[in-house]
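Incident log, structure service

09:12 report received: a user says their structure output differs between two submissions of the same chain.
09:20 pulled the input from the user's history:
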Amino acid sequence: MRKTFKLSHAKIKVPRLVEAIKFEVKKYLKRERGKALPANADFWDFDCRYGVDQASSEVIHVSAINTYISRAESEQRESFYLEILAKPGHRRKRPRPEQGHREEPALAGDEVKTQDAAGIDGT
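09:34 re-ran on a clean worker, output below:
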């Protein structure tokens, strides 16, 4: 989806336009996620861009789309550009910490202070 959305209409108020735009984006994402995945893909990922126009658009995360749409409303923009392109995603394994290696607390003195405050040290 590559589209420039207008936030002005003769009969429809801006808050209703914003709701309609958010719904259209949500419907598009749901439709794309429902498509069959390629054999080597784990999920559908999305490349998203937002800006005043296509030339000045910047990369955003898919979870921030509604925030940027609301920001356009609060800034009282006439229009904004939104691009959402689906691509196959691949999960990556997280690196596991070495076994037997235990991380030390960042501030070891905090534990002593909490014990002192509780009166455990006998004072």
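09:41 both user submissions now match this output. Likely a transient worker issue. Closing.
09:42 reviewer note: The longest strand covers residues 79-89. The chain has one domain: 2-89.
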